[in-house]
Amino acid sequence: MTTPSEPAGVRYIVDDVAAAVRFYTTYLGFTLRAHPAPAFADVVRGPLRLLLSGPQSSGARATPETSPTPGRNRVHLVVHDLDAEITRLRASGLSFSGEVVAGPGGRQILLTDPAGNLVELFQPAGR
């Protein structure tokens, strides 16, 4: 096992790796770390390493066929102005799953990537 100081990653299974790379780097501020094959790419944003695995990648092939995609899990990104982000992303033609939800900790909305995976945009209370 790696040491706790080494970065951990989140794997998202995607239908189209190139489309996923464009989505995360163009709209959400990720940087392309590696794209060694059409079936896989590695993007980073701060300490978050997101592994984008296409249908032919070993990561996707290891996922049981009975696993629902997408799941209820999601990447959580903190934003300073949720309303401005929603306006910016909608103007770019991106899709959201549902509307803004508010709670004691803040406000959030779910964005969907090209494969239908969820990304939570979250504005903490008090901002």
UniProtKB/TrEMBL annotation:
UniProt xrefs under PANTHER family: GB|AAF24581.1, GLYOXALASE-RELATED
Residues that span the membrane, as ranges: none
Protein name per Swiss-Prot or TrEMBL: VOC family protein
Record domain VOC: where: 6-124
Alphabetized PROSITE patterns for the sequence: VOC
